[in-house]
Sequence to fold (370 residues):
Amino acid sequence: MEEKKHFKLFKAGKKWCTMAIATLAVAAGTAVMAGTASADEAVPATASQPVQTAQVANGQSATGTADQAASPANPVTGNDKQTSQQPQRQVDYRTPVNAGNVDGASADKDGDVVFNGWHATNQYQEGMHHFVIVLDGGNNHELYRHEVTTVERPDIDKAYPKAPIAGQGGFTIAVPADRLNGANSLQLVSRYTSDAAGNPAGGSDYWFPVVTTKAGWLDQFKVDGNQITVSGWHVDDQAASKTEHTVILWDKTKGREVARTTVDNVASADLPKVGYATVANGAQARFTASFTITPAMMGDEFTIVSRYNKPGQQDNNTSDLWLGSLKINKTGNAGYLDNFSVDKANKKINVSGWHADDMSAAEPTHTLIL
Fold:
């Protein structure tokens, strides 16, 4: 008999391995040692299989079979997780940080005034509550407070990377318009506190600058023929819930209303750019109106009342702004004839001249009497 060695190629896990197989050749055929397995059958792995070494994040090595290294039944644990962990945030409690901003305001579908902004500080401790308090800007009387939820602000996190609350310091608060009590200005205070009711208890406050909630201006208020024409703008946080805009012509001389009309506001893209971005209707506040002059109005002084009210409730729970002044004179009365002659050939009297009279605003019909 002659001893021969054959090498079998097989796969163990993700590794390809070889194994020597000894056979004895005889005249009648071949007798295979160590069993009856054919050459194309996989040989089970044994303890003599090669050992795989895997390098891990901390520089130490872990050992196991090729199957163990790749098997889902053996997930990466312990130090291996360090490769996927993010570095811990470095917090600086020493360097003073207390900053914030109110980015803007808008009206939501429920008629609330929605303010959004951010507050970053190094005085925050894990588990603190975040409250936003709304004060009357004129007297600091509290109008509303509410605990706000976190709004992610990666831009603030980048600006204050070592503040314990920065990227999570964004906020949004919806204030019911009827809680503003007609205030012309508001001051918002952002507070981090350990007190569940929002009272000071550790943490810090940030007082945002006073913001205007109501303002307006008349670009035009004049007599045009027998009409008084008005155009201007009126920004008002209460327009969020009081969606009807009523313009009233008020006689200051007699102390009474003369006429009123309902107007539809139009876009006012210029107003947010000049300080009214934090007012709910800042981008939709311009209006126009006109009123007919009557003889009873001559000689009186007038002003405009711009009013936001709920639809159909023009005299109930309104937000008013009084704007401008205009006096309609009736003392002016002068004239001159440039020509007053007889045309004998045509048997006519020719007249030409002028007559200026303040009363023409109320009585526009001009009659000549011979």
Observations:
- Residues 24-84 have pLDDT under 50 and may be disordered.
- The two ends are 156 Å apart (CA to CA).
- Residues 154-159 form the longest helix (6 residues).
- Residues 133 and 145 are 4 Å apart (CA to CA).
